[in-house]
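Researcher: Structure for this, please.
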Amino acid sequence: MIPFRLLPLLAFSALAACGGVVPEPGYTPPPAGPPASAFLKQGPLLGSDAKALTHLFGQPRLDIRETTVRKLQFANGRCVLDAYLYAPGQGKEPVVTHVDARTPAGADVDPAGCAAALQAK
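Model: Predicted structure, token format:
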């Protein structure tokens, strides 16, 4: 059994746990930042599906499928292009949301330039 002298302390503790932080008078929250879509890179391959990529570049060198992502890799000796495809919604066809490009030695290159080089074959 709880002693009577502890009851006010327990009641105060329970009430204190329910309280939130009250902002100061005149406080205005900072403005919301830009939407996440504002940070997405734009490019000629974004939004393309695997069929469109295969049509542009031929058979991929690698086709890696995981639970939520598919990675297609295309290469021609001058550059290597990795396209990452995610489904925009349940039951929808995965599309390119990110592209990386590099030389065979590993130095970064412009994805658009690499795509053009891959099309030239």
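Researcher: Any notable elements?
Model: Residues 50 and 82 are 12 Å apart (CA to CA). The longest helix spans residues 7-18.
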